[in-house]
Write a structure and sequence with these properties.
This protein is 25% helix and 22% strand. It contains 13 helices and 25 strands. By secondary structure, it is an alpha/beta fold. The strands form 6 sheets. A 7-stranded mixed sheet has the order 10-23-24-25-21-22-11, covered by helices on one side. The structure holds adenosine-5'-triphosphate (ATP) and magnesium ion. The site of adenosine-5'-triphosphate has 15 residues, from helix 2, strand 8 and helix 9.
């Protein structure tokens, strides 16, 4: 028995195709339409397609922009998609293609189908065409234009291309039949008229191919061996195969469908994400609450953790919804190993150490990682005033509360034990200051006899700490399946999905480069914001994830 992990059904098929000699090496592609930013669902497809190319000698994966619809596509999207694929750790090398470069090829294939009597120009209105198609129970009825001669069709199609029709006045349809129980096979539309400027071909064309016609031709043109797509396309496969069989194409790719990624508490459709952006529910495509690749990057999700997650969920034929907690687990898992530790106080409460005598400050030496000594250690200063979390002090603590309260002891992480000697309150009852004494010679040593000290808390030195804007992100939606909310997904937005606080953090954090991850001890994983954090000027952190899953607990 070999120890190699079990292959998913797609890798199984590829392995068979290689061993039977059907293909020498697989060629895959990732074919985004540049009409929005990529999201985690796309990451699954990227890891699959580029992953297969990495695993097989001589194999490659093309990055192909499926830019056949001029109305929704923009260069901004093309650029962001390239950046995202690279960030995920993949490379298309020289294999970057645009479907719009094949417009001539598509056109010639269409003319070829007309010449074979397999396509016709229909001048019925879109409403008539829809009506005459019938439905699953009723066969369609032929359009009055269905029996045009080849010559008439060639001329009409040339006129479509020449701009002699208005939008909606004519379409080119495949002549397959009108009785199939698969509606996709009922004389599907191949070309429509759109008088719109295309982001790459400008006004060269006013006829644009439909996805079902263009996609198999794009694959064949690039000699794709295995064309991997999501399950919705399963009943488009007969049409895919029909175009491959009847058009003059240089290769015959095989379409294989797999289950798309859906996550709880998440919207995963470019159209809906665009709506969140356009309606101002989020700050942009790279808002750290969005499942876009640019959003999760800014949130501090590491690319390696995304790849690990995609590997773990695997490739299957069954659509299901993955618990977002699983993704968050993989993020924590990765950061636990890879993020150095620092201290930051998110809701500061000042502690005055009354017997602090050393001048002007002393310091504590703290390891940067509890398990991995290669991260080294650092000196943090300690002086007469420090900050601790408000929640680490209680005026009247219960027995099981092991942190600070009147007369109680607690250890400052990496430093000495302190004992609370008093506190001050504002008129409204808020604790404004805690007083304490430190126990000399307790740094790095057990508590002296008779001193009950059961916990260590994080802290920062008030004399050297810097202010940081910290954005505490939480899930964007309050329900598991925002798509099925009665009032639509915008009715279940989490009003507390971001809370901004001014934290006190270790001084060195102000100098960190944007996009650097840390664990703030006891608080979670945080990353310097890639847009707003300016080293030495303005310190801005995004919370990547808390240390534990509080949603699972709440449920
Ligand atoms: P959306 O529905 O979000 O607009 P799409 O499928 O229209 O996505 P494309 O740009 O056409 O977006 O997708 C590029 C590739 O990514 C396709 O091969 C598609 O199957 C795949 N893909 C898109 N969404 C998912 C998903 N949720 N899970 C897995 N693969 C996906
Ligand atoms: Mg699409």
């Amino acid at each position: 028995m070999s120890d190699s992990p079990k292959l998913d059904f797609i890798r199984e098929i590829i392995s068979t195709d290689l061993s039977t000699g059907k293909h020498e090496t697989p060629i895959t592609r990732f074919p985004p339409e540049p009409n929005g930013y990529l999201h985690l669902g796309h990451a699954k497809s990227i890891c699959l397609n580029f992953g297969i190319a990495q695993e097989n000698p001589g194999a490659k994966c093309n990055l192909r922009f499926d830019d056949t619809n001029p109305e929704k596509e923009e260069t901004e999207y093309v650029d962001s998609i390239k950046e995202d694929v690279k960030w995920l750790g993949f490379d298309w090398n020289d294999d970057l293609y645009f479907a719009s470069d094949y417009f001539e090829f598509f056109y010639n294939c269409a003319v070829d189908l007309i010449n074979k009597g397999l396509a016709y120009v229909d001048e019925e209105s879109p409403e008539e065409i829809k009506l005459h198609r019938g439905n699953v129970n009723t066969p369609g009825t032929p359009s009055g234009f269905r029996e045009r001669t080849i010559e008439e069709n060639l001329e009409a199609f040339a006129n479509m291309k020449a701009g002699k029709y208005k939008e909606g006045q004519a379409v080119l349809r495949a002549k397959i039949g009108l009785t199939s129980s698969n509606m996709n096979m009922r004389d599907p539309v191949m070309y429509r008229i759109m008088h719109a400027a295309h982001h790459r071909t400008g006004s060269d064309w006013c006829i644009y191919p439909m996805y079902d016609f263009a996609h198999p031709l794009e694959d064949a043109h690039e000699h794709i061996t295995h064309s991997l797509c999501t399950l919705e396309f399963e009943n488009h496969r007969p049409l895919y195969d029909w175009f491959i069989k009847n058009c003059p194409v240089p290769s015959a790719p095989r379409q294989i469908e797999f289950a798309r990624l859906s996550l709880t508490y998440t919207i995963m459709s470019k159209r809906k994400l665009l709506q969140l952006v356009n309606e101002g529910h989020v700050s942009g495509w790279d808002d750290p609450r969005l499942p876009t690749i640019s959003g999760i990057r800014r949130r501090g999700y590491p690319a390696a953790a995304i790849r690990a997650f995609c590997k773990r969920i695997g490739i299957t034929k069954y659509n299901g919804t993955t618990d977002v907690a699983l993704l968050e687990h993989d993020i924590r898992d990765h950061l636990n190993t890879h993020a150095p530790r620092r201290m930051a106080v998110l809701e500061p409460l000042k502690v005055l150490i009354e017997n602090f005598s050393e001048e002007p400050t002393t310091s504590a030496t703290i390891p940067n990682h509890p398990q991995d000594a290669s991260y080294g250690e650092r000196e943090v200063t300690l002086s007469a005033e420090i900050y601790i979390e408000q929640e680490d002090f209680m005026e009247d603590p219960p027995k099981k509360f092991f942190r600070l309260g009147p007369e109680r002891y607690v250890r400052l992480r990496g430093g000495p034990i302190i004992q609370c000697t008093g506190f001050e309150k504002s008129e409204s009852g808020e604790i404004t200051l805690v007083r304490a004494n430190l126990l000399p010679d307790t740094t790095g040593k057990d508590a002296p006899e008779g001193v009950k000290c059961k916990a260590a808390i994080h802290w920062v030195d008030a004399a050297t700490a810097v202010d940081a804007e910290v954005r505490l992100y939480d899930r964007l939606f309050t329900v598991e399946d925002p798509d099925s909310a009665e009032g639509g997904f915008t009715s279940v937005l989490n009003p507390d999905s971001v809370k901004t606080v001014t934290a006190k953090v270790e001084a060195s954090l102000a100098g960190e480069a944007p996009g650097t991850s840390f664990q703030f001890e006891r608080n979670g994983y945080f990353v310097t914001d890639s847009k707003d954090h300016k080293p030495g000027e303005k310190t801005v952190f995004n919370r990547t994830t808390p240390l534990r899953d509080s949603w699972g607990k709440a449920k």
